[in-house]
Write a structure and sequence with these properties.
The chain has 378 residues and is an alpha/beta fold. It contains ten helices and 17 strands.
Length: 378
């Protein structure tokens, strides 16, 4: 790993909730949300000579350390003084601890990360515990023990550090889609996969690409940790980060991570089960992602049933970016969305109780012999 250098992380934590079944520190029942300095500001604290790019905001803070002799930047790590460092963090009223893995043997992490987590808990102060444990082992060819990781960490990194580019965001989306059978079962209340920071409002993403990152991170039940200059962020990017309906998807109490359910010719569909549940039927958040870059929007047409939405009473459908309510639709109803290049459409489909559905006639005839959905270009 080349980043997570040694520096204080200023973090405004919004979610420190309840009791969990994994790491028993009572935190992160929903994915953590807040603000991190690293991607945008790195370790710049020279506010005298570089006031526009330094960190001095007076927010609550998290802290970075490393389970090694040194941090990635060469500063002292926690090895040899786990208890002392944990006690110091508690004395400083730290709320969030990120433990990196530079200058450490990946095989030693199965012992080291739980040991430091226990020291944090012994302080009596609640601190969210963010681990880099699995990513270092994956890079070393070691199969991570996710049973232990879930027990000892609130969140963990699986893949590369995010950079300020669309290519970086795409690589993370691809990794989580291509490895979802291994990754998805590990997520839940109190223990989350962390695809890394939100870079919305910086320099590397277009408006459409920023909407895509926020929507897919919500489908992934990811921590929503911004790394952006909050003093200068443009209103349209600020509005993405403040989209309450998408945040509600991310923070859904079920804590089920979503999956990529379709990928073909640059079009992807991602789906996440959410509340409310009606009988045996979940509600869903569904994201249509256009990975094409040919300059023209793509139309995607699909029935709700083809998306796995089979509740006989139907679903109330809402576009979470356009703030459009389409009413209650039957599983046989075919919907069509227009998705901009490198953009996204994210819908919420709330399962309805049986009395709410009045036999809405189907607009199309569903046949399992048809393609999963058809694509048209206009």
């Amino acid at each position: 790993m080349t980043s997570w250098k040694s520096c204080f992380w200023t973090v405004f934590l919004l979610c420190l909730l309840g009791k969990i079944s994994g790491l028993d520190n009572g935190l992160a029942l929903t994915p953590p949300m807040g603000w991190l300095a690293w991607e945008r500001f790195r370790c710049n604290t020279d506010c005298k000579n570089d006031p526009d790019n330094c960190i001095s905001k007076g927010l609550k803070f998290g802290i970075y350390e490393d389970y090694g002799n040194f941090t990635c930047a060469g500063y002292p790590g926690v090895v040899g003084h786990l208890a002392g460092d944990a006690a110091t963090f508690a004395a400083w009223d730290v709320d969030y601890v990120k433990l990196d893995g530079c200058y450490a043997l990946p095989a030693d992490m199965d012992h080291g990360y739980p040991a430091f987590g226990r020291e944090l808990n012994l302080t009596g102060r609640q601190m969210v515990y963010s681990c880099s444990w699995p990513v270092y082992q994956i890079y070393a060819g070691i199969q991570p023990n996710f049973t232990s990781i879930i027990e000892h960490c609130n969140l963990w990194r699986n893949f590369d550090d995010i950079q300020d580019s669309w290519a970086s965001v795409e690589s993370i989306i691809d990794y989580y889609g291509n490895h979802q059978d291994v990754i998805v079962p590990n997520a839940g209340p109190g223990h989350w996969n962390d695809p890394d920071m939100l870079i919305i409002g910086n320099f590397g993403l277009s408006y459409e690409q920023s909407k895509t990152q926020f929507a897919i991170w919500a489908i992934l039940a990811a921590p929503l940790l911004m790394s952006v200059d909050l003093r200068t962020i443009r209103p349209e990017y600020k509005a993405i980060l403040q989209n309450r309906k998408i945040i509600e998807v991310d923070q859904d109490p079920l804590g089920i991570q979503g999956r990529r359910i379709y990928k073909h010719r640059g079009i992807e569909i991602w789906s996440r089960p959410i509340l409310p549940i009606q009988g045996q039927h979940y509600s869903y958040a569904v994201a249509f992602l256009n990975r094409r870059t040919d300059g023209t929007p793509s139309d995607v047409a699909v029935t709700l049933r083809e998306l796995g939405l089979n509740n006989p009473a139907g679903y109330r459908l809402e576009d979470l970016y356009e703030d459009v309510d389409y009413g209650v639709l039957s599983p046989q109803t075919k919907i069509k969305v227009k998705v901009n290049p490198s953009g996204v459409v994210i819908l919420r489909a709330d399962a309805q109780p049986s009395f709410a559905y009045n036999a809405i006639p189907s607009r199309t005839t569903y046949s399992p012999l048809n393609d999963i959905f058809r694509l048209t270009k206009k």
